[in-house]
Amino acid sequence: MNKVELLGRLTRDPEVRYTQTNNTLVASFSLAVNRRFVRQGEERQADFINIVAWSKLGEFCSKYFKKGQQVAIVGRIQTRTWDDDQGQKHYVTEVVAEEAYFAEGRRDSESNGNFDNTFGSVPTGGDSDFETTSNDDLPF
């Protein structure tokens, strides 16, 4: 099984490009992910993980994710290689995002609508079929 779950802060705004073959959007960014344990007398260490998000998920990340924001990414590890113009082989290991989530609340000053914490948005307004004013009204 190849599954990765990461929680970290963006080190830069997502960078968007399009593939040459079929013009598919791909967003790339990196997350600073704190290590669980801190050695006594040392500062907390972080790993910087490269993330790639394709198509609609990439569009979502490029639109809503910003440098410094805390996000959660679920995906898989992928390693790829290529040869540069000088014939030198390069290797890269990255996480291909399959799910992306906001991991902290939006600040009121940044809010321009109600969004859920994952890929997509929830409608604004009072069109709800179910409203409650106290926990006593809940059916469970």
Just name the CATH architecture: Beta Barrel
State which percent range the strand residues make up.
35-45%
User: What is the topology, as strand order, of the major beta sheet?
Assistant: 1-3-4-6-5
Total number of distinct structural domains: 1
Q: What would the CATH topology be? A: OB fold (Dihydrolipoamide Acetyltransferase, E2P)
Briefly note the structural class of the backbone.
mainly beta
Number of helices: 1
Spatial shape: globular
Order of helices and strands: EEEEHEE
CATH superfamily: Nucleic acid-binding proteins
Report what the structure shows:
With 140 residues, the protein is mainly beta. It has one domain (4-124): Beta Barrel (OB fold (Dihydrolipoamide Acetyltransferase, E2P)), CATH 2.40.50. 7% of the residues lie in helices and 41% in strands. It has one helix and six strands. It has one helix at 55-64; strands at residues 4-10, 15-18, 25-34, 46-54, 70-83, 89-102. It has a five-stranded mixed barrel with strand order 1-3-4-6-5. A hairpin with a 5-residue loop joins strand 5 (70-83) and strand 6 (89-102). The longest helix is centred in the middle third of the chain and has 10 residues, at 55-64. The two termini are 36 Å apart.
